[in-house]
């Protein structure tokens, strides 16, 4: 990628965020023949579709601490799921979860059963697969966006300045708002929409146990009406039926929000409290793991979604025809992997329409 009059790196499109929405969008734009660069603040790919590697039972195992599984209701995502199943990247984990409610622990209603898919290598393996053909600059946090006469100017925390003819921002709305406040007039409708988008937070606890603990007979438990705990997953059942248990517990949003600014030791205590609660409600041995890690998700799931799969506009620094800007993410189309996927597809389509570029053959396929 070379300079455009200036000596700044230049791309047809810069996509901010290498979560599901950003990666799906970038892939479709690449297929349409555009030069695309993705900027991602983290070292890893996939955003909230996240996996940690931990030492457990003498081996290094993946543990999903963000998205637990993938479901596919739309035709487009179902087609992609079939392709991933045939590549062995995805497998069906379970059709039936358990519920923990006022009646105790029991299998969910058979009418709610549906395939829940996982990656044997951890959910972030999906993101790595999606990013294969893409140019991604990692550990590159965008800190400022400016519309110039002919291009967007994008500045990052490592001191780089990029330029792009078009911009896609695929990050949670509360993180997007301060970036766009700088670039858009304060009267912009887009800014007020972003201002309404709120997220729930979530404390995730990962815990591993020794051989002695009885293997649970559930794979995942949705907890209803429990303020402390919303989910309990037997992550090790995604890897092998016989592995000593590794569980992932997700704290309820209100309880989790108490720990957003907690110190490491307070966070660790919160993790122990959550495991003690899980032990009381589900299985006593869960209180005493061999190891435990805690992760805090400030932006976990959107409270509500926009009902528009992505938002597109043109932004101008002067009277010139404005520069294309498209915003995407799970806060637009639905707070799950599927919602982020649909939003990324829609963002690519929107941008291609704005640029007058025909959609590539079999648009939607990856
Ligand atoms: C605890 C938890 C459990 C979940 N469980 C499920 C589940 O079981 N099934 C399901 O389908 N979904 C689940 N989800 C939701 C699912 O993970 C998300 O809906 C989806 O991954 C969102 O994708 P996204 O691309 O919209 O956003 P993100 O995944 O948030 O991606 C945004 C990316 O942008 C990057 N970024 C942010 N700001 C900047 C910046 N300034 N510069 C550069 N990069 C930036 C971030 O690092 C991130 O990689 C869960 C989420 C959480 C947190």
Automatic annotation (TrEMBL):
InterPro entries: Amino_oxidase, FAD/NAD-bd_sf. Residues 117-352 form the Amine oxidase domain. This is FAD-dependent oxidoreductase. It comes from Thermostichus vulcanus str. 'Rupite'. The lineage of its organism: Bacteria, Bacillati, Cyanobacteriota, Cyanophyceae, Thermostichales. SUPFAM superfamilies: FAD/NAD(P)-binding domain.
């Amino acid at each position: 990628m070379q300079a455009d009059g200036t000596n700044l790196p230049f791309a047809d499109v810069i996509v901010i965020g290498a979560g599901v929405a950003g990666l799906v969008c970038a892939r479709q734009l690449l297929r349409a023949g555009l030069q695309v660069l993705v900027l991602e603040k983290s070292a890893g790919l996939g955003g909230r579709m996240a996996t940690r590697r931990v030492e457990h039972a003498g081996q290094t195992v993946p543990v999903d601490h963000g998205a637990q599984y993938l479901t596919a209701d739309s035709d487009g995502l179902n087609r992609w799921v079939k392709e991933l199943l045939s590549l062995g990247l995805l497998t069906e984990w379970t059709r039936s979860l358990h519920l923990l409610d006022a009646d105790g622990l029991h299998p969910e209603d058979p009418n709610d059963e549906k395939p829940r898919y996982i990656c044997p290598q951890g959910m972030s393996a999906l993101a790595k697969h999606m990013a294969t053909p893409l140019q991604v600059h990692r550990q590159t946090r965008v800190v400022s966006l400016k519309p110039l006469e002919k291009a967007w100017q994008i500045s990052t925390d490592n001191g780089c300045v990029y330029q792009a003819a078009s911009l896609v921002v695929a990050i949670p709305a509360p993180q997007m708002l301060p970036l766009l406040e700088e670039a858009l007039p304060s009267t912009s409708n887009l800014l007020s929409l972003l201002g309404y988008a709120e997220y729930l937070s979530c404390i995730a606890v990962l815990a591993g146990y020794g051989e002695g603990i009885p293997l649970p007979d559930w794979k995942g438990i949705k907890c209803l009406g429990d303020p402390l705990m919303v989910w309990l997953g037997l992550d090790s059942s995604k890897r092998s039926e016989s592995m000593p248990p590794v569980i992932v517990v997700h704290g309820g949003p209100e309880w989790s929000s108490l720990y957003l600014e907690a110190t490491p030791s307070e966070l660790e205590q919160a993790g122990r409290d959550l495991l003690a609660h899980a032990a009381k409600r589900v299985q006593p041995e869960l209180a005493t793991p061999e190891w435990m890690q805690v992760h805090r998700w400030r932006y976990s799931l959107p409270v509500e979604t926009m009902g528009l799969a992505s938002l597109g506009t043109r932004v101008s620094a002067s009277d010139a025809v404005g520069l294309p800007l498209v915003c995407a993410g799970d806060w637009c189309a639905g707070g799950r992997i599927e919602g982020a996927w649909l939003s990324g597809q829609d963002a690519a389509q929107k941008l291609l329409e704005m640029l007058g570029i025909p959609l590539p053959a079999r648009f939607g396929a990856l």
